Amino acid sequence: MSILSLLQSSASLKCIYLSNILCCNTRETVVSVLKQIVLLTILIIVITGCRRNNDDPQPPVKETSRSVIRNNTVYTASSTPLRGSFIGIDYDFPHDRMITSNNIAALKQNGLNALHVYVENNYTGRPAGYQVERCDFIVDETEKQGLYTIITIGVINYPGDFENDVKFVMDFWEFYAKRYKDREHVIFEICNEMPYLEGITPKVQADAFRLIRKHSPDAMVLFYSLPGTNEIEYILNTAVPELEREIGSDLDWTNEAVAFHGYEGTETSIGADHFHRVIRDFKAAGYPLINTEVPNRYGHTVYTDVALLKICEEEGISWVCFTEYIRVPQRAIWRGRLEAAQIAWKPDFGDWPVIDAVFPFVEHNADKYVGKASAKPVTDGGTVAYSFSDKDYITYTNLNFGERNPLLFSTEVKSENGGIIAIRKGNENGQIIGQCLVPGGNGNEYITCNGYITAYTNGATDIVLAYEANAGNAEPLFLRNWKFELPLPESYIDPYKIIYAYNFPYATGNIKRAVSTDNSSTSPMLVEGITDGAELHFDFLLFDNKEITFNIRAMPVEGGIIEIYCGDFAGIESELGICEINGVKGEWNTYTCSLKLNEILMINGNPSYWDLKLIFKGNGSGELFKISEFYFGETKPEPNEGKRLFN
What we know:
By secondary structure, this protein is an alpha+beta fold.
């Protein structure tokens, strides 16, 4: 019987029953009819429920976004390792910059899916929960944008103040584990670098774990977070067994992992081999592992230790680097260094890193990545090389220069008569972006030929090495390998020292490098092709608030002005001054203008790192001027105030 028929029958029966009630006044009749109505209603409900179970769609099961343990590390719910940077809000400086939604979006566009947050510490003397407003914002915003958030206590220092330290740990997790118990993208790291005292620290960790589990039974929990890679063995052999004894059967490592840092990593006597081995030992023992501080190197705690990060990638270990969130979008600090180290992964968001890219920053054999070629492969002394006659070339396809401009080129060649190796972009007839001068008289042995790049090259492109022999040269040139080179990593650029044209990292417009004609400069190169609206950009200059001038060596062509801007990593930008370049055309001179420094150059009372942008303005469509070098210096007694000539 269909539901419709049943309902129609029910309606008819109800009419009959009501008629009986109206016609009969006996109590027994009324009770009997009412019982039948109740039974019929129950029957309809049961049949309707069965029909729904058979035919109607089931309500969807809620999908979880909680992180999971997989391959002995912490994965996202979509089965990718965690990769992230950090923010420290635990000290609450009066002028701290606070992360924005745009900053979080920038992390996603730079290959990351997590943010490590040092929320609070007990050094401030404030009770747990004092940064809840800022932490709430981070938790809310990362959830909106699909990132994971690892929260932790920034620092404690027992046994100096043991009771207060331990109390703060428990108060912190009583507050935050309860507050974020339903926030599935939040991971709880018990404490950053808690001092390890045998028999004591495991108990503190266990007590904190039980407190977290009381409020949030499903959250991912990270233990220990000790500083050094040399401590991994100690954690494995001593700390983890103690922890398991303290916690007992409630710890099954299905939703927990051990965090460690990497401060003995690859740059001490311990070395990379040790790092690989202890990670593999840990994984073989069945304990999940995550690195929550891939450290910085090279002074001023800026550049990520890419060698150590590469090991984490090779071993399949999730990581969070100790590069601050606000520095990740900087090309020199993040993308350029990872690309130069050829570190890539399939990102959860965006289109960087490029996982199948070929980066030209390591040595390439002559016969690798070959497209078209008129040069001929030969075996020369057991080495594969290419033999070039005049006008011969060889193409290397799809080399990815990323967002970092290579400045130098080197190759191993031997040649009796010498000539030029021209570096062309695209094909054998493409733009010449650099060259290498090959000396003669070296027909019997390979020498290293060092050249330079004149154009600013970004992204993926084909590169052609073309040989232009000296006049009358009938002897072939042999080339066996080559590479582009980045400058050595520096922790910052000192703007109070001369910055030469070959150090100019990024450009817009038609700006390119050329051999310098400035006899009063020690720079071997200049920049030319500067037209209206072109820009030069510099990462990571260390400024303070002293009164300074801008000094630049320039040769006017049509003349114009330079607008000087200083910006920070979060998008704040201020105009510092304007410098007029309108001297004698064709002559080199030093131009000086005073700058108006904004107090934002000082953060927390200290000098800070800023971007520098030079914007060039002028009338007409021709070249404005050429530049060989610039620097910042002290203000002169009567500075030349730059005047704005064009809007």
